[in-house]
Structure prediction request, 408 residues.
Amino acid sequence: MPKWTNKGHEFDELGNYFRKNKNILILGYDEKKNNKIKEKLKFLAGKVNITAKKVNTFLYYLIKYFGIAFLPKNTIIIVEQDSPKILRRLLSHKSVQQNKNLFIQNDFFEKYLSIFAVYVADITYSESQCIILTTHCTLNCKHCLNFNPYIKDKSHNDFEEIKKSIDTYFKAFDYCGLFHLSGGETFMWPHCSELLKYIYNNYKDRYVELGVSSNLVVALSDELCQTLHDCQVVLFVDDYTNQIDEKKIEIFNQSLEKLKKHNVNYAINKGSELRWFSIFPPVADYTKLTENDLACRYDKCGYRNSEIRNGFMNNCNYSGFAQRAGVIEQDYSEWYNLNTYTKDKKFELIEYRLGYSEKGYTEFCKYCNGYININPNNFVPVGEQVKGTLSWNRENPLEIIYDKETVE
Prediction:
């Protein structure tokens, strides 16, 4: 259950086990992938012994018959994501327990590394962190997970406040996997180049990747593209050219050419190949659930991406997006106040980041269908465009949701 019952000590049992077993062995068939995992753990260097082994036929049979008996003592094992055969063999041995001394790569990074780092190395680590720069966007997707169509008064966030929130975040967290800038359409924010340089110059040794999201339906300057290259940004491009008109497609293609010209590191998510699932509007009246049921549902949902804003951090960015859009009331009491963080609160900081809170759920859980773990088949059209703003009658969650459209 994600409700705090022993704040600052919720992970003590596992954390103390890690302290006694603090060596890490990475196993997988692909040496390059193993080394990438090792590289991502480099912030633990000097405090933890980390090795990576490519599994060959001989090593596989040792694993098959002996499990971890032949491996170094006081070691936890991370199995590379594409090596399920190794995982199954290791789990066939009684001495091996998943999520204690054996971890799948993604599970370890998304949850257990934060626990391992703070208990073993006294390092506060977060796998990812998002900050929203603007709610202005060049598209108006009906099922936007940032709830942008519900925002009637779109705005750019203040540059100095953004910098202050980032500084506050890195005073609390020693290291971050992906530090992620988003919107709206991120590149509509007028200070992107300056902010990227600020983050890179001050914190490049405090994260694995600096990421930016964009739909690329926005004109990019050569200066901005050069900054993206110089600051080693990973650009996540959402390609909705199958859903938008020819004029916007032309803008997209021109911007893409500029990225290529400046050798920007980008990855394209093709809208035609994506499946969007609907977290909102609600398909059931979750307001009737008990407090305990809401906490259980939040726990099973397992969504743990986070947003920072005004020096506060939430443990579900969808909840934060819904608050910003006015879908639910803004309530910073649900957020963690990084402005008042001190080092003696490091364990509760990690607990909150991994889902713990006073209530054990967010207020948005009363209106959210949940992430894919509990909402696997509720799909909606990708990138469907609407005119104007949308509104919702929260007094009756099951009433027709899109009850009002206003053309801007």
User: Anything to note?
Assistant: Confidence is low (pLDDT under 50) at residues 403-408. The chain has two domains: 12-120, 125-391. The two ends are 44 Å apart (CA to CA).
